[in-house]
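== Item description ==
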Amino acid sequence: MDKILLIEDDVEISTMLKNFLITEKFEVVTAHDGVSACDIFFSDSFSLVLLDLMIPKMNGIEVMGKIRKYNTVPIIIISAKDTDSDKTLGLGLGADDYITKPFSVTEVLARIKANIRRSTQYATGTACQQPVLKKGNLVMDLDDHSVTKNGRKIELTSKEFKILKLLLQNPKKVYTKEQIYSHVWNDAYLGDENAVNVHISRLRNKIEDNPRKPSYIITVWGIGYKLGTVKDA
C-alpha cells in the first residue's frame, strides 16, 4: 500500500482529502505545520508528498527544500496561489506537480497515481539499465552478484549486498533505518535498530579504507544513512 504524507493546515481540506484517499486504498499520514511535517517525513517512508505552501512554523517551500536535500520522493504542491510565477517557482525548486485550489479530488487522485507510477517506473528502469554499479573504487556486478574494490573481490552476506545495492542505486537519497530494514529484510520494522546498525558496521569494515572515517556509507545524524561523495576512480 502506498503511503502519502499530506501537509495541509486547513483541517477541513486535510480531513476531506485523507478520507477520500483512504477509500482509494492509500495510507495517509497528516501534518498541519512545516516543522511537524519534516519530523514525520524523516522518521518514516512515503511514496508521495502532498504539500500546501501556506503552512505555519515553516512554509511549504522551506519544507520542500529540506526534503529535496536528501530525497527524491514525488512532491505535489496544492496551493491557492495560481499565478504562472508561483507555479514556476514551485516546480523549479523541486516539485513534481502543481494543483491549484479549489480542486476536484478526482484530479488529485489522477495526479497522485501518475506521479507514483512515473517514480516507480523510473526507479525500475534505472536499475534495469545499470547491471554494473560503481562508486569510487567499488564495483558491484548485479549479474554475477559480486563486489570488488580495486579489483579485489569482497565477500558480502546477502543482506550486506542488498544494503550496498540500495545505496548505490539511489546515490542522492538518505534512508532511515526503518526504510533500510523494510527494503532489505522485507518485513515490518519493529524498532530494532541494532540489526541495521550491525550490518552497516560490518559492511563498512569490508569496504571502507578507514571504517572509523567512512567515505562510502555516510551517517546523516538524526535521519539515517546515505552513499558518500567519494569520487569515482
The two ends are 40 Å apart (CA to CA). The chain is about 45% helix and 20% strand. Residues 124-129 have pLDDT under 50 and may be disordered. The domain at 131-227 is CATH 1.10.10.10 (Arc Repressor Mutant, subunit A).
